[in-house]
Specification:
Number of strands of chain B: 10
Radius of gyration of chain A: 24 Å
CATH superfamily of the domain at 1-74 and 188-252 in chain B: P-loop containing nucleotide triphosphate hydrolases
Helix content of chain A: over 70%
Order of helices and strands of chain B: EEEHEEEHHHHEHEHEEH
Strand content of chain A: under 5%
CATH architecture of the domain at 1-74 and 188-252 in chain B: 3-Layer(aba) Sandwich
Structural class of chain A: mainly alpha
CATH topology of the domain at 1-74 and 188-252 in chain B: Rossmann fold
Largest sheet of chain B: 10 strands, mixed
Distance between the termini of chain B: 32 Å
Number of strands of chain A: 0
Number of helices of chain B: 8
Low-confidence stretches of chain B: none
Order of helices and strands of chain A: HHHHHHHHHHHH
Shape of chain B: globular
Low-confidence stretches of chain A: none
Strand order of the largest sheet of chain B: 5-4-1-2-10-9-3-8-7-6
CATH topology of the largest domain in chain A: MetI-like fold
Shape of chain A: flat
Largest sheet of chain A: none
Oligomer: heterodimer
Largest interface: A-B, 20 and 24 residues
Number of helices of chain A: 12
CATH class of the largest domain in chain A: Mainly Alpha
Mean pLDDT of chain B: 87
CATH superfamily of the largest domain in chain A: MetI-like
Strand content of chain B: 25-35%
Helix content of chain B: 25-40%
Distance between the termini of chain A: 46 Å
Number of domains of chain A: 2
């Protein structure tokens, strides 16, 4: 007689079934909302001129996909990635510096808190004057919005590293840089990727805000232009595309995280 | 025997903006080469602080610590320091964990690596070398932590409540394991513990500290020699006598 409640294959089948179920419910929810939207627009519950409808968005997409749409997408994605990378690089460097020097950390702490609560978008006009009315202003905006959060999160993560692990390597005679390399960095990989995910979203916010203020291309530009001429189909389509872009970028970072965890386990 | 470690009138005052606290008043003792000395005392008496002074992590306010006649005034690579929990790095395999000390000290020579291999084999961790710490039992992790410390060949080993994170049964068997390992490597060591049976069954001498501020209240020599079974000796008359001598001093 078999006494085990679940055999290995049963267990695997069960978790597989669960993940299929989660995916199905997700797909069902999205389809349901899209159909509801379409039907509501069709029978006149909502005004399709103001709220558009999935079919009108698709029509708009098909109209533009052979033309300039890709240029707008490329602008927005490119600006976001550049802003993201600059934000991450500067943010990492600052966080490492603030971890390295406790004095600098104490000096900077109140400034960081103030800078974090300041609505960076208010700096828009200043940034345009500094960086010029072009892509550099948009990227600067993305960095301005995402940088401080990255610095605060990473610094906090670095400072709350397990003190006993640090003591262990110090007792072997590790210097500050070795402490960082052997303990602080690897134990903060989850924090790092958490902040990358937040940073990515904020970079996108910064890019769209920048494109609203000053641009000749990009999805933010498209939204502002379409809003002004009441092409709500175009506005809604651009917003949905932004959602898609955010999803793709987020998935890419999640993949990267899995890779990084694997790598850290082999250094 | 020759004096290996000598502490002279160690005094330690903790400073905070609000107050200063005298943690250690005056502690002097010596340890010979190859000797196993335990330090016991009521909780909060400053025994762990004393150990971290010897490790060079905390600097005493006054007094001196001499290791082979050379003063310790900073972290010393000759001194191995083991803490309460095993502190293995969860993202490293056991193998990479035990090499950590050598890696930090830039001593990954083939000779040292061979020595570490031999320790892993001798103490039954070789077949687990590619496992991660989370897959090992508490006792195995503690052994891995010990091998990591021994791999850098410290001339003095400090154990700070090294077994107190383990449950009672594991702790008794692990302490026997560790005892055998350390004795066969002929290690000089100082162990801080709050467990009198552990101190009496493992060491050559027990130093009893007074309540804070700490002074050496008494030293009790333990007569069991190096070849001993730390579990079965707990039934003997000599063990009871030593235990009582320590207990009496501590409960004063």
């Amino acid at each position: 007689m078999n006494n085990t409640l679940y055999s290995r294959s049963e267990y695997l089948r069960r978790i597989k079934k669960e993940s299929v179920l989660v995916k199905s419910v997700q797909i069902f929810t999205v389809s349901f909302l899209l159909i509801l939207w379409e039907v509501a627009a069709d029978i006149g519950w909502i005004d399709r001129f103001i709220l558009s409808s999935p079919s009108r968005m698709i029509k708009m997409f098909l109209q533009m996909v052979t033309g300039e749409l890709w240029i707008h997408i490329a602008y927005t994605v490119g600006e976001t990635l550049i802003g993201f990378l600059i934000g991450v690089a500067i943010g990492m460097a600052m966080a490492v510096g603030l971890w390295y020097s406790d004095f600098a950390h104490r000096v900077m702490a109140p400034f960081l808190v103030v800078a974090n609560s300041l609505p960076k978008i208010a700096l828009g006009p200043v940034i345009i004057v500094w960086a010029g009315a072009g892509i550099s202003a948009i990227i600067t905006m993305a960095v301005a919005i995402s940088l401080i959060v990255t610095v605060i999160e990473l610094t906090h993560g670095f400072y709350t590293t397990d003190a006993n692990l640090l003591l262990t390597v110090k007792s072997f005679g590790a210097d500050k840089w070795q402490c960082f390399q052997k303990i602080v960095l690897p134990s903060n990989i989850p924090v790092l990727f958490q902040s990358l995910k937040v940073n990515l979203g904020l970079s996108l916010v910064g890019v769209i805000a920048g494109e609203f203020l000053v641009s000749k291309a990009g999805l933010g530009y498209l939204i502002v232009y379409a809003g002004q001429v009441f092409k709500m189909d175009l506005v809604m389509m651009s917003v949905v595309l932004l959602g898609g872009i955010a999803f793709v970028l987020y998935t890419a970072i999640s993949r990267l995280e899995k890779l990084a965890v694997k790598m850290i386990n082999h250094i | 025997m020759s004096i290996y470690l000598k502490t002279e009138s160690i005094k330690l005052v903790y400073q905070t903006p609000e107050s200063e606290t005298l943690a250690i008043k005056d502690v002097s003792f010596t340890v010979d080469k190859g000797q196993f000395v335990s330090i016991v005392g009521p909780s909060g008496c400053g025994k762990s602080t004393l150990l971290s002074c010897i490790a060079g992590i905390t600097l005493p306010t006054s007094g001196s610590i001499l290791l082979e006649n050379k003063p310790i005034n900073g972290i010393n690579r000759q001194v191995g320091y083991m803490l309460q929990s095993d502190n293995l790095l969860p993202w490293r395999s056991i193998y990479k964990n035990v090499l950590l000390g050598l890696e930090i000290q830039n001593k990954l020579t083939s000779e040292n690596i061979d020595y570490t291999h031999s320790l892993l084999k001798k103490y039954d961790l070789w077949e687990f070398k590619d496992s991660y710490p989370s897959a090992l039992s508490g006792g195995m992790r503690q052994r891995a932590a010990l091998i990591r410390t021994l791999a850098v060949k410290p001339s003095l080993l400090l154990l700070d409540e090294a077994f107190s994170a383990l449950d009672y049964q594991t702790r008794v068997t692990v302490s026997q394991d560790v005892y055998n390992i350390l004795r066969s490597e002929n290690q000089t060591m100082i162990m801080v513990t709050h467990d009198i049976p552990e101190a009496v069954s493992m060491s050559d001498r027990v130093i009893i500290l007074s309540p804070r501020p700490a002074v050496v209240a008494k030293q009790v020599d333990i007569p069991f020699g190096k070849e001993r079974d730390t579990v079965s000796l707990r039934g003997t008359k000599e063990y009871r006598q030593c235990y009582e001598a320590v207990w009496k001093e501590m409960s004063r």
